[in-house]
Design a protein that fits this description.
Elements (H helix, E strand, L loop, with lengths): L3 H15 L3 H18 L10 H42 L5 H31 L5 H27 L4 H10 L1
Helix pairs in contact: 1-4, 2-3, 2-4, 3-4, 3-5, 3-6, 4-5, 5-6
């Protein structure tokens, strides 16, 4: 009987081979970041009035929400396909549910980190926020964890529904 760690490593290897749509996701994230950067060009440097502050906060909210919903929607078909393979492989006795769930979470972490980092560099620079190291890292930190939240939310909706079509309807309700 293989250990939990060994099973998790095997599932990570299997799932990493199935992640073939990631270059398209990174390209769309780059296009969206340039789009939001041009739409809210140099908005972060303006903070002379209360409305300027609200505009900057609203631009950050819109930018995070748009990419987050995209992450939630794009992960759903991938997880649905992987779930079909999981049922087949679990029936064959290859691994149990816990290593599969851990691998699903672990495999998304580097993808979301690269996505958050590339998105943050473009949007932060184009919105004209103050370039200090700790402020930029706070921006990347919040972007990373927000994108993780949306990605895991999309994965959860697939897990609790029969297929990814129902999951997209459920995800849009919240």
């Amino acid at each position: 009987m293989p250990s939990l760690l060994m099973e998790t490593k095997l599932v990570i290897l299997a799932q990493s081979a199935r992640h073939c749509s990631e270059p398209v996701s990174f390209l769309s994230t780059t296009v969206i970041s340039v789009w939001f950067g041009t739409m809210f060009w140099d908005l972060g440097g303006k903070y002379s009035s209360r409305q300027d502050l609200f505009n900057a906060m609203g631009s950050i909210y819109n930018a995070v929400l748009f990419v987050g919903v995209q992450n939630s929607a794009s992960v759903q078909p991938v997880v649905a396909i992987e779930r079909t393979a999981f049922y087949r492989e679990r029936a064959a006795g290859m691994y149990s549910a816990l290593p599969y769930a851990l691998a699903q979470v672990i495999i998304e972490l580097p993808y979301v980190f690269v996505q958050a980092k590339s998105y943050s560099v473009i949007v932060y620079a184009m919105m004209g926020f103050e370039w200090t190291l700790h402020k930029f890292f706070w921006y990347v930190f919040f972007m990373y964890f927000t994108l993780r939240y949306f990605t895991f939310y999309g994965m959860m909706t697939v897990a609790v529904t029969p297929n990814h079509l129902v999951a997209s309807v459920v995800a849009s309700a919240f």
